[in-house]
Amino acid sequence: MPRRVKDFIDISEYTSLDDLIRYLQTIRDNLPPEHQAELKIRGDEVFGRRLTITYFREQTPDEVELETKYAADQEAGIEDLRRQLDDVPFRQRKAKER
To answer: How far from 41 is each of 22, 49, 52, 94, CA to CA, in Å?
Structure first.
């Protein structure tokens, strides 16, 4: 089963209230099942404020392919590093007595 990822929609343009409501309704109607959507106001007075909608969705086939490719590469790299560290000789010190 593919992993779910969190996606974001930012609304940063100033618009009328009616346009904003229509926009939010369109987003809501097109969200995937079991989206767990949240709306937050982010930003500050210096950089501006924006509405951010976060929701969960299934990964696309391209994302699954990339994750599979890089996860396999990463696992191989970790195993290679583990073998290299196992081959490093070390001398165990005796604990100093007080």
So the answer is: 18, 7, 6, 58
3-state secondary structure 44-68: ECCCEEEEEEEEEEECCHHHHHHHH
Over residues 24-64, the pLDDT tens digits come to 999 999 998 888 999 998 888 888 888 899 999 988 888 88
CA distance 55 to 24: 13
pTM of the entire structure? 0.56
The torsion defined by the Cα of 42, 40, 9 and 13, in degrees rounded to 10, comes to -60
**Across the chain, how many H-helices and E-strands are there?**
2, 3
